[in-house]
């Protein structure tokens, strides 16, 4: 592992984006990845990393011991997993994300990359988008030296035992739908989960200070900035 590697902590390793972040780190010498999760996750073959399993109230202690330069937060549940209960959904996508961010800031994390959603807006009439928007607003108040918010459209990728019928149909129709989405609707285009993961890693390695929001086009641009692995 290179001494100049960026220490990155992944929160949300058991989800689609988290899994892709781990896969993207296989063989990388410029990243030193660790992860925190509430339950054990299947690590990709060939990955060199540590996974700490702990209850959320202990995550701050793990971050304190880990001392990462950056955190990639890919936490999030689904309406189905939350039992179609607004409080249960908010507990993860709002409360847990913010508690994690505050713990990260307290323990010296300089860069925070959060995966949100296209259309996130604290004034949205849609509950899902309103919660995402409220979370983004509160993340800004924590004042990390660098904050990156990713707003991908429909995520394309294989989820473990959690593919909803509507989502399957949306992904199948994505190539055609993407061609029809222009202007303000471009942000809702489907995007590959690995592209989002690549962007998250590239942004976590970026030293420039500020708050940045990335829609699909911005995510794709950021992903292209991740250095390519060179086969020996």
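^ Assign residues to that structure.
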């Amino acid at each position: 592992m290179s001494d100049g590697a960026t220490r990155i902590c992944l929160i949300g390793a058991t989800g689609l984006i988290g899994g892709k972040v781990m896969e993207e780190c296989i063989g990388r010498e410029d990243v030193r990845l660790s992860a925190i999760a509430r339950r054990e996750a299947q690590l990709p073959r060939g990955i060199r990393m540590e996974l700490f399993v702990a209850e959320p109230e202990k995550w701050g202690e793990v971050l304190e011991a880990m001392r990462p330069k950056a955190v990639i937060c890919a936490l999030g549940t689904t309406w189905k997993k939350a039992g179609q209960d607004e409080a249960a959904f908010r507990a993860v996508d709002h409360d847990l994300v913010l508690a994690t961010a505050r713990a990260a800031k307290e323990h010296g994390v300089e860069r925070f990359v959060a995966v949100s959603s296209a259309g996130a807006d604290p004034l949205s009439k849609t509950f899902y988008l309103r919660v995402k928007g409220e979370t983004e607003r509160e993340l800004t108040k924590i004042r990390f030296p660098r904050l990156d918010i990713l707003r991908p459209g429909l995520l394309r990728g294989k989820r473990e035992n959690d593919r909803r019928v509507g989502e399957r149909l949306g992904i199948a129709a994505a190539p055609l739908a993407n061609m029809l989405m222009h202007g303000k609707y471009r942000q809702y285009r489907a995007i590959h989960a690995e592209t989002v993961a690549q962007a998250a890693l590239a942004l976590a390695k970026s030293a420039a200070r500020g708050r940045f929001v990335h829609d699909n086009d911005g995510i794709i641009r950021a992903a292209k900035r991740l250095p390519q692995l060179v086969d020996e």
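The mean pLDDT is 88.
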